[in-house]
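Fold this complex.
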Amino acid sequence: MRGIFPFAAGAAIMLVAGWAGFPRAIYKSRPQPVDFSHKVHADKAGQKCEDCHAFRPDGTFAGIPTLDKCAGCHAAVMGATVAEKNFVEQYVTPAREPQWAVYARQPENVFFSHIAHVKRAQLTCDTCHGDHGASDHLLPYQEDRVSGYSRNIWQTADRVKTTRAAMTMSACVECHRQQGLEHSCLDCHK
Amino acid sequence: MIGPNKQIRAARYGMTIDVDRCTGCGACMVACAVENNVPPAHAGATDRNGITWIRVYKIDNGLPYPETRSAFIPVMCQHCGNETPCVHVCPQQAVDVDPATGVVGEMPQRCLGCRYCMAACPYHARYFNWWDPAWPKGMEKTLNPDVTPRMRGVVEKCNFCHGRWHAAKQQAAAEGKPDTEPVQYLPACAEACPIKAIQFGDLNDPAGAPARAAQSGGSFRLLEKLHTDPKIYYRSKRDWVRASANAPHPFAGQHEAGKENHRG
Amino acid sequence: MLPWNYGFHLDAGHIVFLGAFYTVLVIVATTLVSAALRSRQDLRSRKLERIRWHSEFNDLPARDRACRHVLTGELESRECPHSFDCRECETHARLVEGHPVAAGEEEEIFGMSFPLDRLYHRGHTWVRPESDGTVTVGLDDLGSRLLGTPGQVALPPVGSQIEVNGTAFRVHKHGADVRVLSPVEGEVLEAGAPGAGWYLRVRPAASGEPAFRHLLRGAEVRPWLMRELERLQLTLTAEGAAPALADGGVPIADMSQAYPQADWDAVCGEMFLEG
Amino acid sequence: MRRIPSPGSTKPERRTTVDRQLIPRGVKRCSTGKFLLWILPWAALLAFGLYSAGLCLVKGLNQTNMDNRFAFGLWIFLDLTVIALGAGAFFTGFLLYILKLKELRAVINSAVVIGLVCYTGAVCVLAVDVGQPLRAWFTFWYPNVHSMLTEVTFCISCYLTVLAIEYVPIVLKNRKLRQVPSFLVFEFELHKLVYVLAGVGTFLSFFHQGSLGGLYGVLRGRPFAFREGFAVWPSTFFLFILSAAAVGPSFILLTTWLVEKISRKNLVRPEVFGLLGRISGLLLAVYVLAKTVDTLIWINRTSPEIGFPAAQYYSWQPFGTWILFAEIVLFGLVPALILLAPQLRARTGWLVAAAAMACAGVALNRFVMTVQTLALPTLSFDRYLSYFPSWQETGTFLAVVAFGVLVYSFSFRYFQLFPSERELKFGAAAVRER
Amino acid sequence: MTSTRRDLFKLAGGAAVGALFTPAPWRLVTDTALWSETWPGVPRPARGEIRAKYTNCSLCPAGCAVRARCVGEQPVALMGVLEHPFTHGALCPFGLAGHHLPYHPARIAQGPVKQAAAAIASALARCAANERIAVLDLRPGRTASWTYRRALAQWKNGTYLTPPRTLGGNLAVNLAAAKTVLSFGTPLLDGWGTPGNVIAAREGFRLIQAETVESRTAVMADQWLPIRPGSEPALARAIANVLGNQPLHDAALETGLTEAQIVAAARELADNGPALVLDARERPEILALNQLVGSLGHTIVMRREAPVPAEWKNAVAATELSAVPDGSVRVLLIDESAPGPYLPWSAVEKKLVAENPVVVAFAWSGEGYGRHAQFVLPTAVYPEMVDDIPAAVDSPAAMFRLSAALVPPPADVVNPAEFVAALAQISATNTLRERADAIHKSGRGTLFTYADAKSTALKDVKADGFWKALNEGGCWMDAVPERQEIPKLAFGPPAATLTADNLPLAVVMAEAPAGLGSPILSKMYQESNLRLAEDRVVLHPTVARECGVEDGGRAILEAGCGRLDVLVCEDPGSPQGVVQVAAGPRTLDLCGSSPRAKVVRA
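Structure:
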């Protein structure tokens, strides 16, 4: 049995390292500039997704609103939270754009049209973004150290447990295939 | 490739280029490079390894001065329709033909850089990134966000300005148009041609300008004999221009053997 | 490559192409795995020595694999198909039945001592049945002269099993590391020494004539030895020992001393049937 | 084991170096110093080549003189050549294990090493040749099964694996290594199954040699290379198989002769040379016949049918008709005839010269298929350009040559590449004695 | 427990096998492939809202209307404004990539502004009575030109210099009226005038191109007359003779054409009027043909200048460079910020005083006069600069349009007009607005705005609205008076012809942009050889053989004023006895005044 021991030990070490250590090591974590609560904005301010995340006239998606949009309400501190106070002090007053990290930012070679999915295909936001709109805090942005890809687009805690990156082509392809909308690479790539 | 099983009207985008109008100004080449984030020449790049998705060749009738008469032929990917030579040779499905548009698409991110497709393409319409793409300092700010810059070591080529097609589709979605009809858009070269020698549109649309031009007299395609069914049509009233599109040696015997076009 | 990969289609091209690919992979993997499994089994069933001998026997030049009956002139030409293990050879059994080996007449052949009371192995060892039913194993005179006074001898521990054509013991001499083949199968009872005239005392696994059928005896020894001397001469010439011993000459007691420039390792390897 | 020191041993044992212990018993090899001296220039060449290849990998393929016109250059041409020459490995294996030509046992080990060297070198150069080696696995993961290159990639990598496995017994048979019981047993068991590997190798080689030819034959955009054929395979598919099988034995013959000359030893019997030459000559004759028929069909039908009179391909200097003549007659028919004539074959000079010519012929064929195909413009107004490899390209290829020589030298020194070497040594000794 | 080497091997083997059963190697393989898409060296384009901005291209006098596609504020692509009534949406390759110019590697960002000012001041202080301070304005007629003229009026010997030109100032060409155009080497279809206008008018006239080589215009012309190099005046004389029923003498021999060709061309000019004769070098004896064929008032018309404020009238008049005595200019300020025709340095240099002249070039790169000037002061470049663009040669109506800044210029750039105004101590900070107001006050013409593609009569627009429209993309076009005044053309004497001594080849200049273009123009100049780069010459293979040079090889071009390293391109379509050269500043300096050269092996 002694003969097999070094082999087993080596295998065990790598198994532990590969399953437990690697998924932690491969991601670089970066906190969001502001502890933003979607929940507060949805519940208290009664806002819908599209109130802040709007389409422009040419069909492009504006994404995360710029500071002017926030400053429209938060010109001065409205509530009692520390997060809001910090936001107003650090960003609104000095008119500094917060450097949001976009979980769902698509890689450079992907052309993703929000309007085609929302307006044509009638998908709701949570189909892809999960219950992000109801979250109370922003999770740190996690970036793959090698590929530079975001770890997930769902931004929900349960996805973080998986080792597999969320931003894979297969998820897109699966749905497109079901819809009979898979023609060529350049459908989605640019 | 999966064919579309949704009821859409497939387009066959194509071009008709009026050779008799082309002044060879080069606006199409520049507009193409600007649109598609093709970097300027790296130090050491030549006409042999520089990248330009559309190249304007100067051709001539092969007669000596002063009987020489020239014409300009812009050559980009011909978007072959029939047994597209490059699609079948790619070992990893980096090239495909979109059944919805007829565009021969190339995915640089899938490309391994084996360059077999370049050997297969009779038009020399494919270009390899021999260098890392490099823009002078600051000039990368002027890159088109609709087209991703390619990395070195991959092949690239004209895709009828796919970024513009995406933008047009998105605009159509915003305007509430259904996605069953092909969108109307213009590639950068067609838009930039100051003399409008390049007509672009859906060849399946018989009323469209390119389709009508393609049907008219003097229309020809490059290397039609190879049965590659290109979607780029050319037009010229001059016989020698039309002859040069197909013959391997259109003017053999008119001057010494091995004569070549040196400024093409 | 796999059905869930992007771009995979279940069409004839994919089925034929990938089918062939996976078949090749399976065949290659099966070959490797079965070789590994079989070697593991071999190791477990202690076939190591047998395999070593088989492998080395296969590497011998055809000339050296000649059947003992060719040496005696009974057969024109025959390569031994049983790796010199005549116990399982039907041809040998038949021949021996017809013409039993004549008893030897001389104890001194070519000036070397080959007593008639023992049986000889082609790897230059002998077996001498002792009165208590055990056998002693030693190097024959040619073997002893080749090795002279051994530099170092590594004998198997008492109680270990040795088998026919397996390793009996190892001898180091003059840069040569010689694995001496065992003439018998059985348990080692006692270790001797070069000085004692024998090296091992073995309780044979089986007794009786068939158990020692593979060993040379009597009249067979002389033709064999003649062939061996020829081989030795050739080997010495080939390995750079010049001048060769003259015909009919007697090998001296410690030949390695006489030919210091010869590749003694190669000479011994050749003569002790080692690859 | 119990060690008992001999009472009589007073002299110290003769010292043996590790190097000595690794050399097979009974064969003569040069001294360690001399061997190192031989290794040194090749190692230097290898280092230089690795530097060249490193430049190409780190800085990109702009280090080469290839361009958009000559998308394939020196590397592809020499890869094709090397793979064709390496075909000796599969073909000898096929003849020995499947057709049971026992005489070829004398060269099979050497053939395997040559095959391994050729294929490893070719694959390494290909890894440098592609623009994005990090994505090389895409071909396996997302294969386009209609591409000849996919077939080549799959077959070559599989065959390289097979060759590596075939090489394992040769290595494990090393004197030192076989002292490890499991190595010894594994070698023995694996060697018993080697006919399976030989069969698989034959299948794989058959296909990828063919696919390398098909690579060009399917190019409709290159009328110079385009050929008709059977099913999905153009005629070049079969011609490449045939030519590779024909020159494989020739190359084995040539290398064996070279090794004999360099090591100044007899390694195989003259009959084996003769047999290799005969096989090579026979296949070469068949190949030349097939190639001639193919060329005639191409000149008279395939090419004119798509509007390209074949004569015009040869109007571009320096690719005149002489190249066709050299390829088919000078380096095809002539060596075939020499190899088929028993009187000529019996003389080493003729035999070796013919083998060398056959190898040169296949190299010329691969050159024509690669470089000339790419050089000739299809579009009438396209430029006709020339190409000359850069020192980085040459260096990278020299690395393959150096790598091959080194691997072969080490294998020759430490492994039993020519089983009859010992026997022949005794034969020579017997002659000397008389 | 002792561990042996074998144990170590086993450990490593186990580790390898263990690793294979974790996600790590597979993820790394995938990730490195993904990394190869985004590795350093591949820039990422900025993302953001896409909007359109409008301006006018100031890279040449055409001033084409431009729609810029911007990401945020940054232009990423330029295109023409299709509805523009005069430029018709055409944009030449230089204009298409104009937004790259601020990032051109040859750009100058800083310059010795204070030293230059001090040097000018001290030179002015010791200026002799007959010595001048001069401004060489390569694009006259701008508001900045008025500032120069006003500023120069402050000094006794202030001289406002312009390149020599006959057409384009007060005289405009009306192509729309032409039926036959005889062009002597004019790149009519290759950047001459306003490309959009030329293309629009092209259907209306027959073009005869008399030119030695088959230029781009010659390719597209209805007829190409391949004449001997330098025989243009002879052809003009011959045509004049035909029209005047005079004998042709040896014109055919001199020009290399047949008599029939010459007669036919002359007949066509006379019979298929209105005709127009253009000359690339504006040689008076050739342009005088216009008088013979009756172009004046039809195809060559007087053009009013855009109104200027009354208080600017106190300004010096324009002087052509050649009219200034040699050795008389003490201080020369050259405004290259608005590119115009490049005058060979030898022609400029001889006007300078022999000792210690002060030469200051205002330029965004040092590739032009910056190579000769003592001081190069950096200016803004299109599309950073704010400047107006006067009407081009082919516009019968005056125009006023601004090249508005699409991106902010660097901090250290100099406005040449303001610099000169400051030297002269006059105020010139708001001249464009003042000019606009003066135009608005005149109430003439129409305003065309780009964003909505609308034409509005100027009198319907408020002054502020006019100014705003000009800045956000607009063009004012003067009304063309119905009755044309017949201009009096003052054609000078024929230029002296140069004789060849040891320079066997006639130099034919290929068209080239004034100043540097975007680096992306390497597509045309270097990577496709579509156009001749400044370091290349074209020779007939026979000529190349005679010169001992070969295709693609290095060579030296030798001419009257020096030598240049060049690359040889052989072209069997090129005439013998000719070397084709691109007309860049370097080559113009080299052989601009004596168009003969020789090529030798490098």
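The mean pLDDT of chain C is 85.
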